[in-house]
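Re: that chain you flagged

S.,

Sorry for the slow reply, it's been a week of failed gels. I finally had a moment to sit down with the sequence you sent. For the record, here it is as I used it:
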Amino acid sequence: MAIIERTQEKLLEVESRARQAEEKFDDVNEKLHYALIRNKDLERELETILTSSRQKEFEGREEENEGEREDGEDEEEDDNDDEEIKPVEHSPKSPKREVQRKEGPLNPKPRARTKSKPKPK
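Prediction finished late last night. Pasting the structure tokens below so you have them in one place:
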């Protein structure tokens, strides 16, 4: 009879620990969920900043090129009136992909969950 009571006590302890572990897991999972949402928001914000920065940079280069073209046109009019200066073409690149190349992938491969070894008492 004592063995059965002792086994029931152990079972209750194990159930209690399992419940606590499940609650901790749920809490951590919820924190992870919010962290992932925050990361997505930050990625969007970064992409917006990069896009506007690149646009300003492109506009600055365009203005420089126009200034150089005007200077060049004045000189070229004297030399050769038939030639045209073609604008420099920039290849459109996704800022997100460019950042990924520099910093690595945004979402590395997910790690497989492994069972932890029980702690010795």
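What I noticed first: The radius of gyration is 32 Å.

Talk soon,
D.
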